[in-house]
Amino acid sequence: MTCTHFSHLSNQPIMCFFHQLGYYLANQRHPRLFTKKQFFNQLVTLYGRKPVLEVLNDHRLAIYRVHLAESNKTQGIINEIITQAQQRCIDIVYHSRQALSRISKNSKQDQGVCVDVLCPQHKSYQSFLASHTIGNNKPVRLIALDRITNPQNLGMIIRSVCAGRIDGLLLPEKGCAKIDALVVKASAGTLFKVSLLHCQQLVNALKDCQHYGAKVYGLSSHAKQSISDKSNDLFIIYVLGNETEGMSQEVRKACDELVHIPMNNGVESLNVAVTASLLAFKDILA
């Protein structure tokens, strides 16, 4: 599985798909401003026969397209995928193995199958900043990830962000774990509804958010300031670093302050996913 790779998408509209999404587009706050690029930012491309069939079987999810290798034999699970797609009026596109590998970005594990899933809450961080009224006395809370490479950690973080009082997860395109079957499973399906904010470079995104008044707090076990002292700012971004190395030096410098979570009995640090859970429910449990 992978995400945000959309060079394979055609310019031609698929009427069946937009019939499924009519309810969604009709409810856009500014439908005329909903551009092709914004639409593609909301697509996640997943691969693998069982994961694709599971997605197709979940009728709560809106599907853009199913991609199949021409060399697939129409039997077993492939036949089930085709049947489900046809029943749901989802476009099926056939490709050579080489072309399909360019879609999946993982020819060794795609098993000749990919699917494009629409995730309405996935967008660029710029779109988030443009659509949120910063400074209207309503708190905004984001969690940003710096080189989180374990898929299970990423999935559990996504689940906590979705469940807690966090407005979005800032995820850079490079350096973090790719969206794959492990991430989807660990997120317990919340990947498809979490507010996921894409950025190319985390440092640049943090600086842009600071221009909107954000205070960026990097989590570090060596920090002198406690996180409990930093709850009055309206716009807060908490940055979580790599599982073993913590934040990169560049990201660390971009933070306004470094803070730590107070711990007892000589414990120095927590798993990054556990830390994300504490942050996600910090304001709720305060």
Describe this structure in words.
This protein is of the alpha/beta class. The chain has two domains: 15-118, Ribosomal protein L30/S12 (60s Ribosomal Protein L30, Chain: A), CATH 3.30.1330.30; 122-285, Alpha/beta knot, CATH 3.40.1280. Helix content is 35%, strand content 21%. It contains 13 helices and twelve strands. An eight-stranded parallel β-sheet has the order 5-8-7-6-11-9-12-10, sandwiched between helices. A four-stranded mixed β-sheet has the order 1-4-2-3. The two termini are 38 Å apart. 39% of the residues are buried.
Q: How are the secondary structure elements laid out?
A:
Layout: H1 15-20, H2 22-26, H3 36-41, E1 43-47, H4 49-57, E2 62-69, H5 76-87, E3 91-95, H6 97-104, E4 113-118, E5 122-124, H7 125-131, E6 140-145, H8 151-163, E7 168-172, H9 181-186, E8 196-199, H10 202-211, E9 215-219, E10 225-226, E11 235-240, H11 249-254, E12 257-260, H12 272-280, H13 282-285
Parallel strand pairs: 2-3, 5-8, 6-7, 6-11, 7-8, 9-11, 9-12, 10-12
Antiparallel strand pairs: 1-4, 2-4
Helix pairs in contact: 4-5, 8-12
